[in-house]
Write a structure and sequence with these properties.
Helix content is 65%, strand content 0%. It is an all-alpha fold. Helix 1 (6-14) crosses helix 2 (18-26) and helix 9 runs antiparallel to helix 10. InterPro entries: ARM-like (IPR011989), ARM-type_fold (IPR016024). This is HEAT repeat domain-containing protein.
């Protein structure tokens, strides 16, 4: 199935029915629906980022969001790619950089940036991951 409108996504996300709630996290939607959600419903941005099918172009937009919770959700995404993860590796929020360091798909180039991070925990995780590869 496909989510056909922002209102449907919001209804599914707010549902007490496990099957409907699951749909909000796992079903795709047209690009126009994702764009309208992030433009008109800022409180849904973190949930858009957590959807398993959200396009990389939407993740790129969300990686610039003012809310660090949204950027952290993007940093968790395996499909975020080098460009997005590189941007988030330089984020002002430690929690966002930590999520990038823990992202299984973070490339060595990004981990190299984080291996010199100002925060001990980020630096430590990045260095451990670089040593494992």
């Amino acid at each position: 199935m496909t989510i056909t409108s922002p209102e449907e996504f919001i209804r599914l996300r707010a549902s007490d029915e496990p099957e409907e709630y699951r749909r909000a996290g796992q079903e795709d939607a047209p690009l126009s629906v994702w764009r309208e959600l992030i433009d008109s419903f800022p409180e849904m941005r973190v949930w858009v980022a957590r959807n398993k099918t959200v396009p990389v172009s939407i993740l790129s937009t969300l990686s610039l969001d003012p809310d660090p919770l949204v950027r952290s959700a993007v940093a968790d995404k395996r499909k975020a790619g080098v460009e997005i993860l590189s941007r988030l590796a330089q984020d002002s929020e430690e929690s966002v950089r930590l999520r990038v360091a823990r992202n299984r798909k973070a490339p060595r180039s990004v981990l190299g940036l984080l291996a010199e991070d100002e925060w001990d925990e980020v630096r430590s995780i990045a260095r451990k991951r670089l040593a494992q590869d």
